[in-house]
Each structure stands twice: as C-alpha cells, then as structure tokens.
Amino acid sequence: MALFAVHDLTHFFGGLRAVSGLNLSLEKGELVGLIGPNGAGKTTVFNLITGIYKPAKGRIEFLGRDITARSPHAINRMGIARTFQNIRLFHDMSIVDNIKVAARHEATYGIVTSLFHPPGFWKTEHELDVYCRELLAVFGLDKKAGDRSSSLAYGQQRRLEIARAMATRPSLLLLDEPAAGMNQSEAADLIDTIRRIKDTFGLTILIIEHNMHVIMKVSQRIVVLDFGETIAEGSPDDIRTNPKVIEAYLGKEDPNAA
C-alpha cells in the first residue's frame, strides 16, 4: 500500500478546471518532483492535499485513510507538513521561537498548566527547547537560534521554513518551490539539505520546483502537469527528453516559421 495517493482529483476555479483527474501515489521514502509551466495546477494540488481547498471530485488518502474532507490542522497533525512559495516566517520572533510555534503541539499540557506554570510545565518547555535546537542544528542554524529570523540571509530563511515544517514531525513533506529566489550556491546547499533530511528522518517528499537543476538532482521520479493534467511521468532522464514536456515548456514549433 502506498503511503500517500490521490485518485481522480479534480478542482475548478469558477468555470476554469485547474486540476483534472489527477492520479498520483508516493511510496514510503520516495522523493517525487511535481513540475509544469506556470499555471499548470501544481500549487493547487498542494492546497488540495493540505485541506486549504476541497476538491470538486476525487479522493486523497494518507496512511490508508481518506483525508479528503479533513481540515488543514487535522491533516498536519496526521503527519503532512508543507512550505510555501512565499516565505512565511515570523520575522520579529527569534529563530528558535519560529520552530517552537510549529512544534508546540508536541507539548502535552493544557491551558491551566500554561497559565500557572507548575514544575511539569518547565520540564516540557525545556524538552521542547532542546528538540527545537537539535532540529536547527540539522539545518546549520543552531548558532543563530536567538537571533531574529529577519536577520537571516535569504537562503537561510528558506532553510528555516523547511525546519519549521519539520518541527511537526511529518511523514510526508511538501516543498513548494524551495529554491525560488536562490542563487546557484544557495540552490546547491538546498539540494544537500533535502537529501540529508530525507535520509536522516526517513521522509517521503513531494517537491514543486521551477529550478530544473534542483528538481533533476533530487527527484527519484517526476510527474509533469500541464493545464491541470498529467502529461508525463518517469525518471529525470526520461522527463528531460520527453517531447510532450519539451512542448509544454517551449511551445510547439511552427512548421511555417522561416
């Protein structure tokens, strides 16, 4: 049984069909790229998976359970986390507090405990702090834990956003254009980071990315969308030379052109 699967997923915006009959499955530990031209429906797929949108048709399954009608919060608690195209950090908070916000659901105390701070509260807070700092170390950000997130360079902010998603201890991580705005050196660091966290945490990862160098380097398998439909699926080598993919990105050559 696949860790995650969508069946005949379809979604409309008004009269426009944004996703059309999508079928996709991920095995445990797999890293799959989801690519396509602008407007192909990639981020819409992420929004459907995470409960931000409700599909017009189709079913979404995770760990053998139907999660199609679940709320974003419930889906996250079940083990699916994501990042966004636009960085959404709390810039006036410290780096470690950005992680703690996401990891807070790990705390077992209730509202009375949080108000009156008995001894068990401080024990839980200490354990949470240790966990978050260990997670920052994986991303090379532990020495900056007390700094404001706004002080980080762009590539570091991208790493922090991934770390914050990881704080919820997901089984499935959705990365929405993590290399957006990165220079070549930052993108190379990102490739290493994605590979490392996949292996370290045994993650399954679905990644949207326009940077073809990144997607070809990290993906074991690639699915290509165009106008909301799957037009190709295969290994990076297969996708690189697929005529339908080339046409989707570059357009069909006009035989009457000079």
Mean pLDDT level: 89
Q: Overall 3D geometry?
A: globular
Helix percentage range: 25-40%
Q: Briefly, what CATH class? A: Alpha Beta
Strand order of the largest sheet: 6-7-8-3-9-10
Poorly predicted runs: 111-116, 254-258
Q: Which CATH-level-2 architecture?
A: 3-Layer(aba) Sandwich
Report the span from N to C terminus: 53 Å
Count the E strands: 10
Radius of gyration: 20 Å
Largest sheet: 6 strands, mixed
Number of spatially distinct domains: 1
Strand content: 15-25%
* H/E element sequence: EEEHEEHEHHHHEHEHEEHH
Count of DSSP-assigned helices: 10
Might you state the CATH topology name? Rossmann fold
CATH superfamily: P-loop containing nucleotide triphosphate hydrolases
Label the structural class.
alpha/beta
